[in-house]
Amino acid sequence: MVHKAGRNEIDIALYTDVLRRHRQVVIVGVALTVALAFLSYVRISPSGISYRSPEVWSNQATLVLTQEGAPELRSVLPLGPGGSNTSLADTGRFASLVDVYATLATSDAVVGELRRRGLVKAEDLKDGALPIAAGPVQSTVNASSPLMTLSAKATSAAKATTLTLAATRTFLDVVQARQLAAKIPARDRIQVRVVKSSEAPTLISPRSKALTMIVFLGGLIATAAVAFMRENMARRGAEAPDVSAASVPARETAADGRATLGSVPDPDPVDSHAERKPDEVARRWG
Question: Exposed/middle/buried for 62, CB within 10 Å: 0-12, 13-18, 19+?
Fold first, then answer.
């Protein structure tokens, strides 16, 4: 079977025959390729087998900025005695502070406390990366809202959920500690309440298989190359002339030449008649 690629012709049957003739090389090469591809995907150590490239899972919590008295649940804010405003704040002010609290959720105080608890390690903070993030919840009408999310990333779904819960708890503790340090009365404090503690974990980055595919394809190509190299070497050896066999005719020719030089050849009958004298010929045939 021949396939044409541009002006070049590819003989699939020929390639198949070469690989079949050198099947031992192919079997060994494929076995080594599979082994190397496997080792590029997992790591074998005294502690067991682990993946070289981890998965990345994410989970998030949803929080709301509010105040004692739940002004977000009221249709209108009540008035105090004599028509004065009460201590309840407009919910629009909470929405304007979401960015501030989102930054506080990933501050050094929160991250440091998570590190002290052993939930965040030094390698999680490599190159300035943070395993937690926070941001405002965008309204469907493109308006600001007092809602915010706090998300966490980890190498497993369970770890992502655990870190989300821990980061939320730590963030609330830091906010409360700062309010106490500022001696803010309880009725005047902004309260951060949990709307949803966590959601279903989401796989945001599966394990990379790029290196495994490169190793596998490279091993197959190298195996085929070795098989064709051995085929070319075998053909060159078959096409090379046999020096010992070629020397036999030469020796026989030389021997024949020496035998010819040592003997007297019989005269050619035609030539002998031509060399006889005319009178002898006449007497013989007369």
Answer: middle
Q: Would you give the distance in Å from CA 178 to the centre of its chain?
A: 46
Query: For the segment 7-43, what is each residue's pLDDT rounded down to a tens digit?
Result: 556 678 888 888 888 889 999 999 999 999 999 888 8
Do 194 and 124 lie in one domain? The reply is: yes
Would 178 be classed as within a structural domain?
yes
Closest Cα to residue 232, out of 3, 21, 8, 10? 21
- Are the C-beta atoms of residues 198 and 158 closer than 8 Å to each other? no
Q: Which residue has the tokens 């050619």?
A: 268
pTM to 2 decimals? 0.63
**Which residues are within 8 A (CB) of 132 and not within 5 positions of it... i.e. 6 or more apart?**
105, 106, 110, 111, 114, 120, 150, 151, 152, 153, 163, 167
Shared domain check, 184 and 88: yes
- 211-242 pLDDT, tens digit each: 999 999 999 999 999 998 988 888 888 776 65
Give CA–CA dist 145/63, Å, rounded.
11
